[in-house]
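Lab notebook, design round three. We kept the backbone fixed and only want residue identities now. Task for the bench partner: fill in a sequence for the structure below.
Input structure tokens:
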């Protein structure tokens, strides 16, 4: 998918081991968003938007994960 200059893929995981979602910055400068398939559609949407926030705020060059998550939940 392509949105506002960002190329990303979304993968629904059947066995997410308790992780609602995560995002990976790929070597080709695209992103892969992983979402737990067992979540409701509404929760999956919220997880997607949360992970997109990480992409839009360029959180991948930052190192304080705690601060990144606090800001992302605001």
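Proposed sequence:
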């Amino acid at each position: 998918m392509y949105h506002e200059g960002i190329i990303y893929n979304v993968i629904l995981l059947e066995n997410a081991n308790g992780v609602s979602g995560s995002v990976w910055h790929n070597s080709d400068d695209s992103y892969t968003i992983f979402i737990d398939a067992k979540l409701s559609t509404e929760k999956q949407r919220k997880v997607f938007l949360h992970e997109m926030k990480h992409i839009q705020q360029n959180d991948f060059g930052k190192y304080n994960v705690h601060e990144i998550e606090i800001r992302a939940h605001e």
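Keep this in mind before ordering anything: The chain has a mean pLDDT of 87.
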